[in-house]
Amino acid sequence: MQNTPVSSLVGEEYEVEVGPVAHGGHCIARTEAGRVLFVRHALPGEKVVVRVTEGEETSRFLRADAITILDPSKDRVEAPCPFAGPGKCGGCDWQHAKPGAQRRLKGEVIAEQLLRLAGLTPEEAGWDGTVMPAEGDKLPQGEVPKWRTRVQYTIDADGHAGLRKHRSHEVEVIDHCMIAAEGVSELGIEKRDWENMASVEAIAASGSHDRQVVLTPKPGGRLPLVELDKPVSVLRVDEKDGGVHRVHGRAFVRERADERTYRVGNGGFWQVHPKAAQTLMLAVMQGLTPRKGETALDLYCGVGLFAGALADRVGDQGAVLGIESGKRAVEDARHNLADFPRVRIEQGKVESVLPRTGITEVDLIVLDPPRAGAGKQTVHHLAGLGARRIAYVACDPAALARDIAYFADRGYKVRTLRAFDLFPMTHHVECVAILEPVKKDA
User: Which one is catalytic: 27, 177, 301, 395?
Assistant: First the structure.
């Protein structure tokens, strides 16, 4: 029996009315035949011509770009970045929307995910529906916040630095990135030849003048002599084990938050927006209101940002346990928090380490899980520890909403939720939810 060939619809064009925003940096539209389209470079309410970029006759939905705007939204602006638009760089989703409109769109996505996955209205989640800009990000029209302190450049076959196109391995070669922090731009990564390199990550610490590049060579590629426009330390990713090794300079950068310095080694995780670490730390501490002598967990603790803030507030009679899977991050966290004798950092996955600790009760919990969320098993374990408050820091509203529903199954409700626009021009948004046990009727 012969298989009938599937007909690709890539390149097909449709005139459509654009519907609501959806999670992922696109809007929903339908063809006259009722076929669902996920449309980038459009805004709700617009009439546009789209061109299909992914999908076949049998696909549940098609992906498409808006290539002609027939009836523009009042929120539309001309994208300030020359590398933004259909078929170009995939880094920014909303260059064509006013900053206030971007935040409204992100708020609509959060509200939709909360309702669909957790059954909560904004009011029931203790949220006023706003997405707050970071301090200093409100700029005159046409200016773009230079917030990205870490930029991962992909290198094309000719050794030129660029950024990946949307859902593609193709490289859009650029001569600058408008959202890159000045400390990244001043390195001049885009101006030099990176022959034999697969990628170059540039890091500009916001808590110090430390600058770092992390080089990933192509298989068998020799490391170049790195001469950039500013002093910089150089690290290399080993092609065999994926480990990061120092070539010259410091193996770490120094960041600042809560009046403390944090060492972040080997290109490890730190919030990308220069105001993010302080903003999130304050939101978490304001929500938890730690008290002297309390015990706390900091899960997925990284280099110890929240553990340090908690330790400072629970004092010498309190105790904090941090759990982190990354070996280098654990080393950094132990170094960063060495002056707190009542802080312990354990290495491993939260779902494996936490049950082994023997902890049966705790006062406060902070969790900042990866994009996929904590998951039902971990949430149910945490809910059984009886914490008076839990702070959930989330970079994905869908994962947050799913985990909120799991907490609800175990007797925890959302007390407050706050949302922050720490990734301007993109669809990403950061949330801090504060949960507490549901009071049982006497």
Answer: 395
